[in-house]
Amino acid sequence: MDDALRPVPDAELIERCLRKDNAAWDGIVVRYWRKVFHIAYKFTGKHDEAEDLTQDVFIKLFRSLDKFNRDADFSTWLSSVARNYCIDHYRASKREREVLVEDLVAFDLAPASPGSNPHRALEDRDRRSFLRRGLESLPAKLREAVVLRDLQGLSYQEMADQLHLPEGTVKSRINRGREELARLLLRAQQPGRSRRSAGGPARLQARR
């Protein structure tokens, strides 16, 4: 193969990146974008979210290049960094979703404070409306499970009896309903969020 057409080794690209060579960084992104995207997609199951997460992973990689052991395999190290970042992101976002639903459900169940000022009362109505719009967006079976459990306070056994379903199915619907509700509510809280991934890897901007 002509030397001019031979792929640049990872080690050379990394050394050039550390010397602030932006073209070398672009080369790494293009070379490994699909690999990182596939890892992110396994965690999200959604194309747009996987692209956002892929962007974040590459920024993490860029900032960690100086920690890479030059004797190790770069592809293996990259995969490890990507998986660890995705795991941390999943755990953090899962807890964020759980807290959001817990807070909103607890708020919806709480009685209105007597003598509260008009502005607070308006905020209360807005939050309840926000939660109810999220519930209305859920598939009927998942909405029913969340309402019976979290708003009406039925036990798993009571729900199983009322819905004529095994208790395991009831628990599964509750969990799926909470996850989907939280995803809808978080998305509604960020209506103006731009797609950072627009244009694919070529537009990735990373800074130390």
Round the Cα radius of gyration to an integer and report it: 23 Å
- Portion of residues in helices? over 70%
What class do helices, strands and sheet pairing give? mainly alpha
**Percent of residues in β-strands:** under 5%
What's the average pLDDT? Answer: 76
Find the CATH topology of the largest domain.
Arc Repressor Mutant, subunit A
> N- to C-terminal separation?
36 Å
Instruction: Please describe the biggest sheet, giving its number of strands, its sense, and whether it closes into a barrel.
Output: none
- Count of the domains: 2
Annotated CATH homologous superfamily of the largest domain: Winged helix-like DNA-binding domain superfamily/Winged helix DNA-binding domain
CATH architectural label of the largest domain: Orthogonal Bundle
Describe this structure in words.
The protein is mostly helical and 208 residues long. It has two domains: 10-90 and 194-203, Orthogonal Bundle (Rna Polymerase Sigma Factor, Chain: A), CATH 1.10.1740; 96-189, Winged helix-like DNA-binding domain superfamily/Winged helix DNA-binding domain (Arc Repressor Mutant, subunit A, Orthogonal Bundle). The protein contains eight helices and no strands. It has helices at residues 10-18, 22-44, 47-64, 74-109, 118-137, 140-151, 156-163, 167-189. Helix 1 (10-18) crosses helix 2, helix 3 (47-64) crosses helix 4 and helix 7 crosses helix 8. The protein is elongated. Residues 109-113, 118-122 and 192-203 have low confidence and may be disordered.
